[in-house]
Amino acid sequence: xDEKKLTRIAFWAMVKRDLLVQWRDKGEFIFRVAKxxxxxxxxxxFMLPTVGILPATFPTHMFxxxxxxxxxxxxxxxxAVPVSMDFHNLREIEDRLLASLSxxxxxYAKMFVGILESFIGGLIVLPIxxxxxxSKITIQMTLSSLPLLILxxxxxxMASAALGLLVGTIVKPSQIAAMFPGFLMPVxxxxxxxxxxxxxxxxxxxxxxxxxxxxxLDQ
Length: 219
Fold this sequence. Notes:
Elements: H1 3-24, H2 26-51, H3 58-88, H4 92-98, H5 103-133, H6 146-170, H7 173-189, H8 204-218
């Protein structure tokens, strides 16, 4: 058996193992992914537009932002926490790195699981958005725009997994609990979920901060 085939077998074995661990905690995973988007969608996407505090067109813009935020946060968490646990608590990463596999293969396996979880996070939030905001959402999709949408979703998932891998290697498990609230709030309120970047033109300072946050996440 050649080396490439062995690497592929080991890669999928690591992926299956990590997915099995996540499946055992599927209830906690769904609750964690859906809790914050549910509250934001209920308040900002349903209640406030219904009573007239926010414009009726607001859910249309919020819909895209909520899907993107859910994918980003889920991918980061799904990659960062297992990597950090393997490095600092379980020490399982040492067994994998001592095997006849490259470090890059181990990292790719972790990222692949994070990418899958990122898409699952978007799928979990999608029905919540449609239930509470479906009647208020006016989005036109054409066949020609579908490839661009798929590309954006794939890049979002890949970026979240890559950022999660970075966080998981430099942050200890005891620090992740404090890191995520400090990271989550700027993403939610400075991530153009409730407004577009162009709408911040009267506030150039906030426009710059929002742009910096976007570049920082991409890197």
